[in-house]
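Entry 14. Ran structure prediction on the chain below.
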Amino acid sequence: MFTDTKRLENECASKLQAGATLDEVITYLHAQGISILDAIKIIRYVGCLSLGDAKRIVSCHSVWQPIVQSNQALHDEAEAAGQASEREH
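Output, structure tokens:
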């Protein structure tokens, strides 16, 4: 699916300038049907946040919890594989 992230960045920046909270902007992005990765990128940009902070804020938001929980097993496996690889070297 193609997402016009530049348009959404502009909309979200305008919403923040008009007094919206990051919580409201994250909810708006979710309602637009974008991926969690695009939401993180947009929140990072419009919130002037580090990647880690944007990831934490978006992934901890209640609207993204079903996605985060469904991907947790994959995340855990990837992390374990990375740690195993580090121990081998």
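Residues 5-64 form one domain. Will compare against last week's run tomorrow.
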